[in-house]
Description:
Blueprint: H1 2-59
Amino acid sequence: MKNERGFMLLEVLLLSFILIGFTAIIYLYNASLRAEKTVAVRTAALYLAEEEMNYLQDLR
């Protein structure tokens, strides 16, 4: 009976570490999605700013 309790404790610890690992992976995945959206918005802003600069230079 004592060995079974030790085995259950080991299972619980192992599953806890696996759950923490999956949680970290999900968090990093969401962070990368947010970063990708930020990069897309900044790229679009840069493109529009370059277009505007070219337009203003052509007015000279």
